[in-house]
Structures are given as C-alpha cells and as structure tokens.
Design goal:
- The protein is of the alpha+beta class.
- The chain folds into 2 domains: 8-77, no CATH class; 89-183, Glutaredoxin (3-Layer(aba) Sandwich).
- The protein has helices at 8-14, 17-20, 24-30, 38-49, 54-64, 68-77, 97-101, 104-115, 160-183; strands at 89-94, 128-133, 145-147, 150-152.
- It has a 4-stranded mixed β-sheet, covered by helices on one side.
- Helix 5 crosses helix 6 (68-77).
- Bound molecules: FE2/S2 (inorganic) cluster (FES).
- FE2/S2 (inorganic) cluster binds at residues 94, 96-99, 135-139, 142, 144.
Length: 184
C-alpha cells in the first residue's frame, strides 16, 4: 500500500502528460493499488491502450512500489501481452498443440511470407500485425486464425492469401463506411 503523502519525485512521475492523458492512473486506482492485482491491471491497461507502453509499466511499478523488472517479467512471460503497438489489422495464428498438429506452423509461415514480417511484428506502414497465441479454446476447428478478432477455422496455408485479400478489401471499404455513417 502506498503512503498517503507521495514524495515530490513520485508526484512528478504521476503527473507527466503521458500519464495524465492515458487511462493508466485510473486503472491502477480501480485495482486499489493492489500488487496482487498486477496481472489484471496490466490486462486492463492493454485492453485500453492496445499494448503495454513502457511508461505505463514504469508507472505501475512506481505506484505499487515494486521493481520495474517485476512488471517487465510478467509482461514478457505471458504471450498475451504486447510491448509494441499492434497493427491496424491484427492476424493471430493459434500455435497451440491441437492447431500445431493440424499445420498451424505452415499457416504462420504463409502469413509471414505474405506480410513480410515475423510473428510479433507489424508492417512498416503499421497496417498489419502478426502474432501467435497458444490456444483460443476452439481446438476442434483448428488450425484457428483470428483476423481482427474474428475466428477463422480449419485454415490452411493455401487459404491465407484469400484471408489477407478479404482483410485488405474490408480495410479499403472502412473509410467509405465511416463517411456514410457520419453523413447519416
Ligand atoms: S490449440 Fe488452437 S484453439 Fe486450441
């Protein structure tokens, strides 16, 4: 538990523009500055920001009075956490055991080849991101790929170009749809 009166150095850290304009402080408060909630806190920060920015992890460490290495340790141990901003469109290939035995590695290689990036990276224009996950609970339909959060089952390497084409088309349509919505 943090002392009621924060030292001057801490107050300065708490009031950086990055912190003030982000949900990080609020999320920590919602978890009552409780270090037992560290993972849940990081999950909430990532859900709100799309990834775990360095300043957010440092801020969490300061507020919880724990070493920043402890926060980094959690963030790097669990595959779910992202330390870099995701792509505008995110492709997630499940490489859990059930998907692996059905050819997930070939599917992943095909995504890497078409996008020109490795798992955990985003394209230079930040349009597409690629990552893997260990199991999303739909093993019977594996290999599973999530495209912008939508489940695609029984994906084979040969289906990857079609998936990416479809994704590209929907990405191109989006601004038009957004304009139509604004005009309505
Ligand atoms: S291993 Fe891929 S959904 Fe379970």
């Amino acid at each position: 538990m943090r002392a009621a009166t924060a030292p001057v150095r801490e107050i300065a850290i708490f009031n950086t523009p990055e912190i003030l304009s982000s949900p990080v402080g609020r999320i920590i408060e919602e978890h009552h500055n409780d270090r037992n909630d560290l993972i849940a806190m990081l999950l909430d920060i990532q859900d709100a920001m799309g990834f775990l920015p360095r300043f957010a992890m440092e801020h969490v460490a300061t507020r919880l009075e724990i070493p920043v290495t402890e926060v980094y340790g959690i963030a790097t141990f669990f595959k779910y956490f992202r330390l870099k901003p995701p792509g505008e469109h995110q492709c997630t290939v499940c490489t859990g055991t059930a998907c692996h035995v059905r050819g997930a590695a070939r599917v992943l290689r095909e995504f890497e080849r078409h996008l020109g990036i490795r798992s955990g990276e985003v394209t230079d224009d930040r349009e597409y991101g690629l990552e893997t996950v260990n199991c999303v609970g739909a093993c019977a339909l594996g290999p599973i790929v999530l495209v912008d959060g939508d489940y695609q089952g029984q994906v084979t390497a040969s289906k990857v170009p079609t998936l990416l084409r479809r994704l590209k088309r929907s990405a191109e349509k989006k601004p038009v749809a957004a304009r139509a919505e604004a005009a309505a």
